Amino acid sequence: MATWKKLSLLLSIIPLLLLLAYGFKTNPREVPSPLVGRQAPAFALSMFDGSSNSLEALRGKVVILNFWASWCFPACYEEAPHLEAAWQTYRDRGVMVIGVDIQDRDTEAKAFIERLKLSFPNGPDPQGKISIDYGIYGVPETFFIRKDGTIHYKHVGALDAKLLKAKIEEML
Amino acid sequence: MIATLGRFSLWLAFALAIYGAFVSLLGVRRRRPSLIESGQGAVFAIFGLTTFAVLLMEAGLVGRDFSLEYVARNASIETPLFYTIIALWGALEGSILLWIWLLALMTLLTVMIDGKRQPELIPYVTAILLCISAFFLLLVTLPANPFTTMLPAPLNGRGPNPLLQNHPLMAIHPPGLYAGYVGWSIPYAFGIAALITGRLGEGWIRTVRRWSIVSWAFLTVGIIVGGRWSYEVLGWGGYWAWDPVENASLLPWLTGTAFLHSIMIQERRKMLKIWNVALVIITFALTIFGTFLTRSGILSSVHAFSDSTVGPLFLVFIGLILFFSFGLLVYRSGKLQAEGDIDSLVSRESAFLANNLLLLGFAFAVLLGTLFPLLSEAVRGVKVSVGEPFFNAVNVPIGLGLIFLMAIGPLIAWRHASLDSLRRTFIRPLCLTILGASICWFLGVRGLYPFLAFALSLFTAITVIQEFASGAMTRRRNTGEGYLTALSKLTSRGRRRYGGLIVHLGVALVVVGITASSVFKLEQEVTLKQGESLQLGRYQVRFDELSAWQEPHRFVVQGNFTVFNSNHKVAEMRPAKRFYPTEQQPIGTVDVRSTAREDIYLVLSSFAQDGTTATVKALVRPLVMWIWFGGWVMVLGSLIAIWPDRRRALAADQVEERMAWQPGRS
Amino acid sequence: MQNVKGEKQRWAVCLLLAMVLGVWSSSILAGSIEDQTLLLAAELRCPVCQNLSVADSPSEMATQMRELILEKLKNGETLEQIRGYFVSRYGEWILLAPTRKGFNWIAWLLPLGVILGGAGIIVLRIRRAIRRGHGPNGDASRPLDPRYASRLEAELKESER
Fold first, then answer.
1. Helix and strand tally (H, E) in chain B?
2. Residues of B in contact with A105 (CB under 8 A)
């Protein structure tokens, strides 16, 4: 074998190792949403309390759209109080918090709302149409929708108070 | 107590591995047999120490010693004894411990069996195997220590992952796979030893042939049983999902298969010396790569152990292996000139070359597809998925080419096959295949790929049967033996060849099973009220009722179904959902009724809380059993091929020794 | 030689024809709306699972996706439109086979390239070896060791038998 062939054989190992090393930097379960920056998909939701809501009707408000489920423990249980607090703080400043309960049973979902004393509107997504429309691949996931109806930011996993506040302030 | 003893024995084993590797090398450099023997003593001691460590771990598990973190995470008071014992390989730390023990065992066997036969190579082999052991021992002494303690000890453990305590096949699948993975260390060590010493004749190949077949057979068992576990536990109705970790087990199997074939050319024709060493290096590196994928979490997979810190260490190890081995190979490549030449494009040799090409191409496509999501993200910043549709599209044509070669390869003459001999050999199988293929067409097999898959598998089976039949016939004519005696004598006279042919038959069975079960699958998912039935192919499935009960470690909801075949009751089937306190979502348990003709497969998807309705997913998959059966045929063939044949082996070795140092063609 | 070449071309044409036929027959197989649903679902990755398709996954999300595909097909949307819808929501990640364009061609074509390249090298080398050997019995200027030659012949004969 010629020397350059030998060397190139050995050197070709390096990119392979680099690629594998790159794997440590990325999380295979974290998939960026193509919806961010685009118009949020329209939805209509009938709430657990019997009222109904739609994105149309909320135009002009900042919307926090939170996808959750009662079986999602502990993440959904951790973030719900923060959402409730944000709702109490910002509801008079044109911010709407809406919870979408997915892949769940109504009785258990209602118990969840009861237990965590949630006062912001929550509704089920029985056919999964809203969750598919928003490209959900797990719970909890949260979309931050601007007043003009475009998506500002998507969060995967439990929210904390700091992030929630920062994102809402950005949109107001 | 257990923790202290365990940690101590692993540290001692680690120190001994370093010591043994060092003195083995020193002994062979300084020509001091006593040092080499001391190195082999270390091998014995390491085996003893690791056996002790495994027994300690088992004692901790069975004795429910929850002060051990591993026990607390993978066992509980309620876990049945059987699943407590096999929890040894239920998580990262324990599985590496098992790995080390298998490696120690195989190193010991190598030293005992081949120590006398390969005195020149064995010190290097010992040193290399001990270095590999040292790496894994380093993992269990530091980042993945199975003997980490917890204070205060919890009162009860979490129990094993429910998916791992659902099926007895978990007792075979991981150890089989690991034995297959670990086994390839030995051919690798011999290949490297041959490179270092310059004894690159056929001696090392002859020694590792058996080891390679054994490792290959274990890998086969691991893969097939893994598929069966996936089929019967994961509840999606399939046995192979082209998941990264599944692919990682297929990769060394493919390159190992290539190695098993190409060493035959080296043995017979003294060609492909560089290629064979390269193949054994690649195969070994891929076994480590497979472990790396399972344990690093860089690709998402059902089989991965999550949250592990051993990934970077594995990567460093892979890098070392690749640079060291290939560096040595290119350094030595001048010595590895072929002595023979290929004489014709139509010959056994070129069929083997084509087989190697396609096997490597197959492996390359699988590797590329597995890593492509990473590549795409690194280069384009876009996440993509590579799954079944891709792998089927790219690999099925390659696979069909391989089956074709599998059918014709063993029947083509070495060196040069004349047109006349080809005609004589293939005219009958060809006619029979055309006949069989027409029947397939008549039975409704359309689509190019399934049709080819059936026809080529049939072709393979016919050529194998023809080989056995004509061989036995000839013997019978010449010796007057009965058919059965002739057949068994024939097989035992050429164990390798006939064992290999049986393996081919097994592969053909597997291919038929895979094709039929994926092309002619029937599937339906329906919500049924009590007493209602669904119709699927020839079957009616009636939902009778739900039953539910509490077991010590879980709550079970079971659907009771009766299956009819045109009003004849065929079976009562009971798919269930099991609710574990540690899991958010219930774990489904499927019920499968298998016959040689087809499987009925029921999954309880969901149910109404009052028990009046149940949603059931029903599948009818033809010939699934052929896959499992074909797998065992492959193992049987391997067993025949390795069955010791002392008299002839010794004679062959003597010829080999005399010829070992013939000057090669420059 | 001419004859052989002609034969090869014939083979190539036959093979091509067979492939076209195969593609054709598999494309007309897609019959009812339910079949089309499963066909498309098999191309999509179930978002909540590990490496399972929407067609295979027993999860609730996958079930809902299959229902949505069926509904969209009933509304007259084409498979292409529905595929586009899922990509617009989940990104390319949702497709289990990378789209055949741009960078993704590497995944599709490189294996083929490697195999063809390898085949080229092998054929070239064998040709060269044959030319060097001048016929099936090897080069006369390179006498085989008699022991080796006899053993080779014996073994080869045995395995050919």
1. 20, 10
2. 609
Question: Under a CB-based contact definition with an 8 Å cutoff, are residues B515 and B443 in contact?
Answer: no
Residues paired with A40 in a beta bridge: none
Q: In 3D, which of B478, B414, B261 has the Cα closest to residue B489?
A: B478
Question: Both tokens of residue A89?
Answer: 């703080």
Residue B505 pLDDT: 96
Predicted confidence at residue B92, as pLDDT, reads 86
Q: How far is A125 from chain B (nearest CA, A)?
A: 17
CB crowding B161-194: b at 16 or more within 10 Å, else e: bbbbbbbebbebbbbbbbbbbbbbbbbbbbbbbb
Query: Inter-chain contact B374–A23, Cβ cutoff 8 Å?
Result: yes
State how far residue C52 is from chain A, nearest Cα, in angstroms. 13
Contact B378 A19 (CB under 8 A): yes
CA distance B140 to A102: 42
Q: Can you tell me the distance from the alpha carbon of B627 to that of C98, in angstroms, rounded to the nearest whole number?
A: 29
Alpha carbon A157 to chain centroid distance? 7
Residues in chain B, total: 666
First and final C-alpha spacing in chain B: 63
Q: Under an 8 A CB cutoff, do A1 and B333 touch?
A: yes
Say what the pLDDT of residue B118 is: 86
CB environment A4-43: b (16+ within 10 A), e (fewer): eebeebeeebeeeeebbeebeeeebeebebbbeeeebbeb
Identify which of A107, C117, C29, C161 has the alpha carbon closest to the alpha carbon of residue B473: C161
DSSP-derived letter for residue B234 is I
- Per-residue pLDDT tens for B300-324? 666 656 556 788 889 999 999 999 9
Q: What is the CA radius of gyration of chain B?
A: 27
**Cβ separation A103–C60 shorter than 8 A:** yes
Task: Give Rg (Cα) of chain A.
Answer: 21
Residues 54-73 of A with CB under 8 A from B: 71-73
Q: For chain B, give the percent of residues with pLDDT over 90.
A: 57
ipTM for the predicted complex: 0.89
Strand order in the sheet with B598-607: B522-529, B613-622, B598-607, B591-594
Measured between CB atoms, which of B364, B384, B659 is closest to C114? B364
Phi, psi of B259 (to 5 degrees): -60, -45
Q: Tell me how far apart the alpha carbons of residues B570 and C42 are, in angstroms, rounded to a whole number.
A: 31
Largest CA distance in chain A: 79
Percent of chain B with pLDDT over 70: 94
B312: Cβ–Cβ under 8 A, 6 or more apart, which residues? Answer: A21, A24
- Please give the mean pLDDT across all residues of chain A: 89
Whether residue C18 and residue B448 make contact (CB cut-off 8 A), yes or no, is yes
Which region among A9-23, B125-139, B300-314, B600-614 has the lowest average model confidence (pLDDT)? Answer: B300-314
User: Per the CB < 8 Å rule, is C152 touching B269?
Assistant: yes
Over residues B199-209, the mean pLDDT reads 86
d(CA B332, CA B194): 10
Q: Which chain C positions have a beta carbon within 8 Å of B413's beta carbon?
A: 156, 160
Q: Answer whether residue C1 shows pLDDT above 50.
A: no
Contacts of B375 in chain A (CB under 8 A): 19
Shortest Cα distance from A169 to chain C (angstroms)? Answer: 26
Q: Cα C67 to the chain's mean position, in Å?
A: 31
CB contact under 8 A, A132 and C64: yes
Q: What is the pTM of this model?
A: 0.90
Compare all CA atoms of chain A with the CA of C45 and give the residue at the minimum distance.
Answer: A137
Contacts of C65 in chain B (CB under 8 A): none
**Mean pLDDT along residues B538-542:** 93
Give the per-residue pLDDT at B211.
93
Helix axis angle for B244-269 and B348-380, nearest 10°, is 150
